[in-house]
Amino acid sequence: MRRIYLDNASSSPLTDHVKEVLIKSYEDHFGNPSSIHHHGRVSRSLLEQARKKIANAINASVGEIFFTSSATEANNMILKRSIIDLNVDHIITSPTEHPCVLKSVEAIKFEHPEVEITLLKVDNKGNINLLELESLLQNSNKTTLVSLMYANNEIATLHDVVAIGQMCKNHGALYHSDVVQAIGKRPIDVSKTYFSFLTSSAHKYHGPKGVGFFYMNMDNIITPMIHGGAQERNMRAGTENLHSIIAMSEALQESLDNIEDRRMIHCTLKNHFIHRLLTEFDDIKINGETETSKAIDHIVSVSFPPTDRVDMLMFNLDISGVSASSGSACSSGIESDSPVLLAIGHPSERKTIRFSFSHMTTLEEIDLTIEILKKHTPTV
Ligand code: PLP
Questions:
Q1: Any catalytic annotation for residue 330?
Q2: What is the spatial distance between Cα 235 and Cα 240, in angstroms, rounded to a whole number?
Q3: According to the model, what pLDDT value does residue 330 have?
Q4: pLDDT at position 173
Q5: Ligand 1 contact via 295 beta carbon (within 6 Å)
Q6: What single string gives the DSSP state of each residue in 104-149?
Q7: pLDDT in tens, 223-251
Q8: Which of 29, 109, 182, 311 yields a CA-CA distance of 20 to 30 A from 243?
Q9: Are 291 and 156 in contact (CB under 8 A)?
Q10: DSSP letter (8 states) at residue 77
Q11: Nearest to residue 108, comparing CAs of 100, 202, 257?
Q12: For residue 134, what pLDDT is reported?
């Protein structure tokens, strides 16, 4: 059976170029970047070239880029260490952030009850109210860290990172943004967004899994969460995942070199998919923002009407050859809407599925998915 992969927001396949780079690195560059002999020096030089490529990609300096195992690690580190090292005593975030941000904030609340946590309200499309943020910043006399992502991983809604960054700068607040779903798909220039911290993960832009990086503005130095050797200029101990770091830098560069072409493909797929869903199915809703300027182009969150077959929809798609993601938070086998869907007031009796594309997805695959969906959901 032919399989269709529509779960690129979960993880995306390597491109041929990234695959080649990775294989070559595994074959040739086995020296430890911390070793001072020839093999080590070659690895060190490649590590620093990768750092430079990544720094250039977001208009940062090389000294501001640090490699990690994932965006989850980077988000945990930045939020938790900011409390200790930067005396942050107020975190402003939103209920639509990724669980690795929200769970870190929960852990902070438990361990540091003195830290004030504010969850901004979101509207039914996942937008925050910038006036609410401005008023909170204006009236706060605390050391505040704002943690707001760029593109939402479930419902695609974009936050206006430039406006938020400017606001944080004006009010002396730190700004952390999880840009995992936006980097490589939207240009990012840290001199315009005033990020104090940015976090990213390679496998969302056709790089390998288990590697990410963070940007830390030189004005706001935190200390490590993982202790050991002096890697990453004492910021993150542990031998660097050199092969994956090189591949990550190539994947990011390749995404940026093709940003407009890929974006056009994502938009064409998304518009076609949404048009067919809205015209050929009964009572379909698209969650989050859909306007191109307000939503990331590779994610579509679809809310299906409650029917006796809707609970089986994900399963039926899977056995028919389509891999997509459910919009549920599943614990102990009991499914409920994810925190993001709850935050936007999604009716729990409806079923949400997130479909996410890459430039490798084809219109034919979208059409086949529509035909498969028709077998399992009410059409008009
Ligand atoms: N942040 C967002 C917005 C994500 O979509 C994800 C992955 O789904 C993460 C963080 C976590 O990334 P990683 O897989 O590198 O831990």
A1: yes
A2: 12
A3: 62
A4: 98
A5: no
A6: HHHHHHHH-TTSEEEEPPB-TTS-B-HHHHHHHHHT--S-EEEE--
A7: 999 999 999 999 999 999 999 999 999 99
A8: 182
A9: no
A10: H
A11: 100
A12: 98
Cα(7)–Cα(83) distance, integer angstroms: 35
CA dist 264 and 269 (Å) reads 9
Query: 3-class SS at 31?
Result: coil
Tell me how far the alpha carbon of residue 281 lies from the centroid of ligand 1, in angstroms: 31
Residue 334 is predicted with a pLDDT of: 60
Which residues of the chain carry a pLDDT beneath 50? none
pLDDT at 378: 79
By the 10 Å C-beta count (0-12 exposed, 13-18 middle, 19+ buried), 140 is classed as middle
Q: Please work out whether the CB of residue 126 comes within 6 Å of at least one atom of ligand 1.
A: no
Residue 261 φ then ψ, to 5°: -60, -45
Residue 1 is predicted with a pLDDT of 82
What does the CA dihedral 231, 234, 238, 240 come to, rounded to 10 degrees? -40
**How many C-alpha atoms does 187 have within 13 Å on its Cβ side?**
8
Quote the pLDDT of residue 336: 76
Full 3-state SS string of 290-312: CCCCCECCCEEEEEECCCCCHHH
Task: Please report the pLDDT score of residue 380 as a whole number.
Answer: 79
The whole-number pLDDT of residue 45 equals 98
CA 184, 47, 77, 181: dihedral to nearest 10 degrees? 10
Q: Are 212 and 182 in contact (CB under 8 A)?
A: no
Q: Is 173 exposed, middle or buried (0-12, 13-18, 19+ CB in 10 A)?
A: buried
Token pair for 91:
């975190």
Cα 227 to Cα 100: distance, rounded to the nearest angstrom: 21
pLDDT of residue 214: 98
Q: Which residue has the tokens 């430890």?
A: 32
CB of 100 closer than 6 A to ligand 1? Answer: yes
Burial grade of 127 (CB within 10 A; 0-12, 13-18, 19 or more): buried
Q: What CA–CA distance (Å, rounded) separates 217 from 133?
A: 22
The alpha carbon of 15 and the centre of ligand 1 are apart by a number of angstroms equal to: 20
Single pTM value for the model: 0.96
Would you say the CB of residue 8 lies under 6 angstroms from ligand 1?
A: no
CB 83 within 8 A of CB 143: no
Say which amino acid occupies 219.
Answer: D
